[in-house]
Design a protein that fits this description.
The structure is a single chain. By secondary structure, the protein is of the alpha/beta class. The chain has a domain of 260 residues: Alpha/Beta hydrolase fold, catalytic domain (Rossmann fold, 3-Layer(aba) Sandwich), CATH 3.40.50. The protein has 18 helices and 10 strands. It has an 8-stranded mixed beta sheet with strand order 1-2-4-3-5-6-9-10, sandwiched between helices. Helix 10 runs antiparallel to helix 11 and helix 12 packs antiparallel against helix 13.
Length: 536
């Protein structure tokens, strides 16, 4: 996932161009990997560039750069690729070319450091967003270089498609999602083992060595908050510091209980903070429980028309969970005075509980319209290879089902808030039972959840209206490190850098420069979001 980062506090401008095509602002990836790169691209002011690089230096770089190397006004950009084993233990599978871009600092003298950014996913590209990241990190780019690497199988780094599209995967039934995962595995065959966070981390270190950097400062967003600790565990002497935004720990709950509970908490918070008071938070949670119960018994069919065709969404309790914890968390804080999915939910739930499904149908259609055709191989394979499951990877399918159902039965009464345990766990496209048919043979074991990590300064940020990677997960992510600080950002979602003032990015970039976030009082002063009133 990425974030709508602005320049640091002294460099000014927040995001003001809210008239830009809103379809770009809806771009995202499923599951924990919510992407807002398009938001960032559409919202930053075009004037936030550093001083121009000397013409001769820019011209020399252009002559030697590959054709895909991005042009970043005011900066020299160096690009290249490294050949990496597809699967380290299986040389017969060949290699993959991992590409990178280094946006050089604008100031005189050598760089004071290099910041590697991962915008989320799994599977989000970075290189083609260089012109977006550069103005967003203009304060850092005065004296720090910026390293952007397209993760293996994405962008400029050797695509390995598996024939599963984004819209098909996100909006299909749960059974169809499981079938898509199995089809993806069959198509990839033994190459499915190439998609792991560990391999991506090792690719990043190979690039680090290629460009001659001794240590990296790591900036991870959404899935990047999973990748960067893995990198740190595998290459501990190469890490200077870390910022993790929209974070979750390596040992996250495979039954997603923190997210389920955060859905209710977010509804209560937006109601309590609305000015004038637009809704009763306790009633909104009751309406959510009524809606979930009714959809569990009788799903709602919602016809959807997108640029890719027409289809029908079977809107179940699981789809409701996905809408509330994932879709409703994105872009919160970007334009707090404008209507948002989260701000409209109390009204939609009230109407559904009263027998009128119209407002909720509208929200479902708007969310489904964001579906694209991007191949999901990097997403599906990484989450099925790496993430914790509620079953043993070595178990046959029948035993996996038994273990999973036993875990749901033992989740605890009320552990999933207003949802049933099974219903909520049919919401995550990167969790629940979606990977239950992933192959046992030829695929790696899940990523270790408690590796040794270096003693470096770490800043963890969470939006307090984010049910996707909620405060509870952010605190758990911070506890992975000895020298960490956790900050909850009021009235923001996933990830908090989307807010317009530049407060959050000012804090995070100051930390990357100095190891200290400085004055963080602005994080508690961000305005509440608009909430559609619930009429008696």
């Amino acid at each position: 996932m990425t974030t709508a980062m602005t320049a640091d506090m002294n460099e000014g401008a927040g995001m003001t161009d809210r008239t830009t095509d809103r379809r770009m602002r809806r771009a995202r990836r499923a599951g924990l990997a919510v992407s807002v790169l398009a938001v960032l691209a559409s919202a930053l002011p075009a004037t936030a560039h550093a001083a121009p690089e000397p013409r001769a230096a820019v011209a020399d770089a252009a002559r030697t750069a590959p054709g895909w190397c991005p042009t970043v006004p005011g900066h020299r950009t160096d690009c290249g690729s490294v050949d990496r084993p597809l699967v380290a233990a299986r040389p017969g599978l060949g290699t993959i070319k991992v590409s990178y871009a280094v946006v050089r600092h604008a100031g005189p003298g050598p760089a004071k450091g290099t910041v590697a950014v991962n915008p989320g996913g799994p599977g989000e590209v970075a290189i083609d967003r260089a012109e977006v990241f550069a103005p967003a990190l203009a304060g850092l780019l005065k004296d720090h270089d910026l390293l952007l690497v397209d993760p293996r199988g994405t962008g400029r780094s050797g695509r390995l498609p598996c024939g599963v599209g984004d819209a098909e995967y996100r909006f299909g039934t749960r059974a169809a999602q499981r079938d898509a995962v199995e089809r993806c595995a069959r198509t990839l065959g033994p190459k499915a083992a190439a998609y792991t966070t560990a391999a991506t981390a090792d690719d990043l270190d190979a690039v680090r060595a290629r460009v001659g950097v001794r240590r990296l400062s790591l900036y991870g967003l959404s899935y990047g908050t999973y990748l960067m600790p893995v990198y740190a565990s595998r290459h501990p002497t190469r890490v200077r510091s870390m910022v993790l935004s929209g974070a979750y720990p390596l040992g996250f709950d495979p039954l997603a209980r923190p997210s389920a509970q955060a859905v209710s908490l977010s509804l209560r918070r937006v109601c309590a903070r609305s000015v004038p008071v637009a809704c009763d938070g306790k009633k909104a949670v009751r309406d959510l429980g009524t809606t979930a119960t009714r959809l569990r018994a009788r799903p709602m069919t919602v016809p959807v028309t997108t640029g890719h065709g027409r289809f029908r969404v079977r809107f179940t309790e699981g789809k409701l969970a996905n809408l509330l914890y994932e879709a409703a968390s994105r872009e919160v804080g970007l334009a707090p005075a404008e209507p948002s999915l989260l701000g409209r939910l109390p009204h939609a739930l009230d109407r559904f509980a009263a027998g009128d499904p119209g407002p909720l149908r509208t929200l479902v259609r708007e969310d489904a319209a964001s579906g694209g055709e991007e191949d999901q191989a990097p997403y599906v394979a990484v989450v099925c290879n790496d993430y914790r499951k509620a079953w043993s990877k070595d178990a046959p399918r029948a035993e996996r089902w038994r273990q999973y159902r036993a875990a749901l039965a033992g989740a605890g009464v009320g552990a999933h808030g207003a949802f049933g345990a099974r219903g909520f766990n049919e919401g995550p496209t990167d969790g629940g039972d979606v990977c239950i048919g992933w192959p046992r043979e030829g695929t790696p074991h899940p990523q270790p959840t408690r590796p040794a990590l270096p003693d470096v300064p770490v800043l963890v940020l969470s939006g307090d209206l984010d049910a996707n990677t909620p405060d509870a997960n952010g605190r758990a992510a911070a506890r992975q490190f000895d020298d960490s600080r956790f900050l909850s950002v009021r009235n923001t979602g996933h990830v908090p850098e989307l807010e317009q003032s530049g407060c959050v990015t000012g804090v995070s970039t100051r930390f990357l420069r100095t190891g200290d976030p400085g004055d963080t009082s602005c994080l508690r002063a961000l305005p509440p979001i608009a909430v559609a009133p619930v009429r008696p």
